[in-house]
Write a structure and sequence with these properties.
The structure is a single chain. This protein is an alpha/beta fold. It has one domain (4-255): Alpha-Beta Barrel (TIM Barrel), CATH 3.20.20. Helices cover 42% and strands 14% of the residues. It has 11 helices and 8 strands. It has an 8-stranded parallel beta barrel, surrounded by 7 helices. The N and C termini lie far apart (48 Å).
């Protein structure tokens, strides 16, 4: 069974860390049986599961629901829950209480977006024994600040800030940090400068691991497709074809036939 210590040791052994999101029981079972190391119950459920335009609307209760059913399915991987917008930014007390709720429903740790502004929250969680995964670069809960889903870390100031924040997260005790949508060279520099694993998404090949949104990589969600997403299947198209065949067979009286009926 994968633990936060397992993830830390994988960087030391130069073993690549494989991560995916999951939001429901059937998908979580498949992902876990496939041997994925970290299964993130992402607030991206707001987009690919609930049809929202961004991650901001999803609530604690909704995230707890998704985390509970994913945790019920996973037997081997490390389940990490995304803390949704305003569940930790408001106070250290809120951060502790809400992070604890995720652990009570089965998560092994939580993920928070940001660096210096939320460092006190992260330090308190870790001091209380709650594993924390950091998240730097493009942090989707800050899209209004960024003006959209834009590449981060282009300017020298931005690069310096991200590098400094990565080191602060390491010092605070984060067991890993997600680097999202930053230049390859910066991700490589951050990865080399910290002892904790970096998990890339749109950050190039030099991170210690990679994560994608499951619905993106299997073609189940196509409202938008970032450049960094590789489609490994077209599940959405397969489902559409199956539904259309069912529709046609019902309308033509082909289904149900004798093989699918009782005497």
């Amino acid at each position: 069974m994968v633990t936060v210590k397992t993830i830390a040791s994988m960087k030391q052994k130069q073993e690549r860390i494989v991560c995916l999101t999951a939001y429901d029981y059937p998908m979580a079972c498949i992902v876990d049986k496939a041997g994925i190391d970290i299964i993130l119950v992402g607030d991206s459920a707001a987009n690919v599961f609930a049809g929202e335009k961004n991650t901001l609307p999803i609530t604690m209760e909704e995230m707890l629901y998704h985390t509970r059913i994913v945790s019920r399915a996973v037997k081997n991987g490390l389940v990490i829950a995304d803390m949704p917008f305003l569940s930790y930014q408001t106070s250290i007390r809120d951060a502790v209480y809400n992070a604890g709720r995720f652990l009570k429903v089965g998560a092994a740790g939580v993920k928070l977006e940001g660096g210096t502004p939320i460092l006190a929250m992260i330090e308190r969680l870790i001091a209380l024994g709650i594993p924390v995964m950091g998240h730097l670069g493009l942090t989707p809960q800050s899209i209004h600040k960024f003006g959209g889903y834009k590449l981060q870390g282009r300017s020298e100031d931005s690069k310096s800030r991200l590098l400094a924040d990565a080191k602060l997260l390491e010092e605070a005790g984060c067991f890993a940090v997600v680097l999202e949508k930053i230049p390859v060279s910066l991700a490589k520099e951050i990865t080399a400068s910290v002892s904790i694993p970096t998990i890339g998404i749109g950050a190039g090949p030099f991170c210690d691991g990679q994560i994608l949104v499951l619905h993106d990589m299997i073609g189940l969600f196509d409202d938008f497709s970032p450049k960094f997403v590789k489609r490994y299947a077209q599940v959405g198209e397969a489902i559409r074809q199956a539904v259309e065949q069912y529709r046609d067979e019902v309308r033509k009286g082909v289904y149900p036939d004798k093989a699918h009926s009782f005497d």
